[in-house]
């Protein structure tokens, strides 16, 4: 009997021991499951946080805005068109409200260009548009860190005094050139005035790119048998006297893409028209004011090309130091119908009327 009781007690103790082990294993498994769930929840939270962060970054990028300083040398049709094309293209590329333009005009004073650029540098603009050669020169002197895009600049190597210019400036400067084929302009003079003997080269000596153009055209014209003379003026104050002398001694006058001439076409017209001396111009705006014909570009399109370059720089798509100077793809022969009729000049086929 005692042996049976002892056996029952031992059996009961074994059952209780097994039950305790089972309970411990179950608790351990439960704890492991809860830990796994916690880890999964933590991973989910991390993923959601990452997604939220990326969304915030995207939202910040989409809301990013820029300030662009525009220094334009002087107000006239060509430069105005380039500035407008630049603004239109950059706004289209980046979206309405993303760009604030600080647009300033130097009133044909290079010293004022320097003052404007220094103001842009002090205020920390994101990019500078330098419209015309003196504006570009001021920007180059004013900053070597803020991206500078030039436009309405004929020859960057000449403007920036680069001896080894190969089409890319290589620092914080790039842009677009308004250089039309100078040999083509010489060909136009020969086409329209084959019997002329002397060509007067009228330009502002303060504009380096004007000097470059008349030097180059002079070489082409002399190859064709013309005699060329320089008629350089320092500013608008002596333009009248120099233009009068040019009209007295020339059969034809050539005016390059010169900003001072462009801003004073009425003076040139009032001198050359009574003298019956035709003017062939380097760009359409000058031709519309005082010329008979031009081989010209669209300055608005030039500005558009510059605006697209600016968008790539601001968004980080391109580095300005690697961007070559861009040139106008198309050139058009145009003529001033009113002045041609007054001078009795017949324009051959292939020219468009300046509207």
Task: Report on this structure.
The protein is of the alpha/beta class and 355 residues long. It has 13 helices and 13 strands. Helix 13 links the parallel strand 12 and strand 13 (352-353). Helix 6 crosses helix 7 and helix 8 runs parallel beside helix 10 (265-275).
Main β-sheet description: 7 strands, mixed
Number of helices: 13
Helical fraction equals: 40-55%
Mean pLDDT: 87
Distance between the termini: 131 Å
SSE topology string: HEHEHEHEHEHEHEHEHHEHEHEEHE
Low-confidence stretches: 1-33, 53-61
Strand element count: 13
As a percent range, the share of strand residues is: 15-25%
How is the largest sheet built, in terms of strand order?
A: 7-6-8-9-10-12-13
Class from helix and strand fractions: alpha/beta
Net shape: elongated
User: Rounded to an integer, what's the Rg over CA atoms?
Assistant: 37 Å
Summary tags:
single chain; 355 residues; alpha/beta; 7-stranded mixed sheet; 6-stranded parallel sheet; 13 helices; elongated; disordered N terminus
């Amino acid at each position: 009997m005692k042996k049976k009781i002892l056996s029952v007690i031992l059996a009961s103790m074994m059952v209780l021991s097994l039950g305790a082990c089972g309970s411990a294993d179950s608790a351990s498994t439960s704890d492991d499951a809860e830990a796994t769930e916690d880890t999964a929840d933590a991973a989910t939270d991390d993923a959601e946080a990452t997604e939220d962060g990326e969304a915030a970054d995207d939202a910040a990028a989409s809301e990013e805005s820029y300030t662009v300083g525009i220094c334009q040398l002087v107000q006239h049709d060509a430069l105005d068109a380039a500035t407008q094309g630049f603004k239109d293209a950059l706004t289209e590329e980046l979206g309405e409200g993303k760009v604030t333009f600080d647009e300033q005009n130097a009133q044909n004073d290079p010293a004022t260009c320097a003052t404007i650029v220094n103001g842009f540098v002090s205020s920390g603009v994101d990019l500078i548009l330098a419209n015309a050669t003196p504006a570009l020169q001021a920007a180059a002197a004013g900053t070597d860190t803020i991206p500078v895009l030039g436009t309405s600049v004929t020859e960057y190597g000449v403007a920036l005094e680069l001896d080894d210019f190969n089409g890319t400036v290589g620092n914080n400067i790039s842009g677009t050139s308004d250089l039309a084929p100078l040999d083509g302009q010489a060909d136009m003079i020969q086409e329209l005035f084959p019997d002329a003997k002397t060509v007067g080269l009228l330009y502002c000596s303060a504009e380096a790119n004007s000097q470059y153009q008349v030097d180059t055209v002079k070489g082409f014209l002399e190859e064709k048998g013309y005699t060329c003379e320089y008629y350089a003026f320092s500013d608008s104050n002596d333009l009248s006297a120099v233009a009068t002398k040019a009209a007295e001694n020339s059969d034809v006058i050539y005016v390059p893409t010169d900003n001072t001439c462009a801003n004073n076409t009425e003076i040139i017209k009032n001198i050359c028209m009574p003298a019956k001396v035709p003017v062939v111009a380097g760009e359409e705006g000058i031709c519309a004011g005082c010329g008979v014909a031009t081989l010209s570009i669209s300055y608005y399109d030039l500005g558009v090309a510059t605006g697209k370059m600016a968008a790539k720089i601001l968004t980080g798509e391109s580095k300005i130091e690697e961007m070559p100077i861009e040139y106008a793809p198309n050139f058009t022969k145009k003529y001033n119908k009113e002045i041609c009729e007054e001078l009795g000049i017949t324009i051959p086929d292939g020219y468009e009327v300046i509207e």
